[in-house]
Amino acid sequence: MRKRLRKKRRLGEFREDCFELTFEMSPTLNDDESDCLTDAFIDMIESNGLQFGGGGNDRWSGIVQGPYRGSATESDRQTVLTWLNQHLDVLNSQAGPLRDAWYGWSS
C-alpha cells in the first residue's frame, strides 16, 4: 500500500494508539470538591499533551489518546494511572492496554 493511503487509513507507521480509562470519584465529595478534582484531572491530561474523550459524574469512562494524529504511549498510561492513584478521592481507577484507536475495537 502506498504511503499516502497508509496515512489516510491510519495504518502502519501512521497508526494511532489509545487506551480506555475508568475511575470513580468518592461519593463523599460535594459539588465544589468534585468540580475541583475534575479540573485538576483535565489540567493533568492537557499538561501531558493528551486528550480525553468521555466523561461522567461519579463514575468516569473514556479514551485517552495522544495529540492530533498522535499516539498515547505506555508511559502516558502509567502517568495517568499514577496521578489517579495519588488522589484519595479517586476510587477504582483502571486503564486498559494500548490499542489501535481506529481499528482496535470489536463490533
Automatic annotation (TrEMBL):
Pfam family, one: YggL_50S_bp
Organism: Allorhodopirellula heiligendammensis
Name assigned to this protein: DUF469 domain-containing protein
GO CC field: cytosol
InterPro entries named among the record's database cross-references: YggL_50S_bp
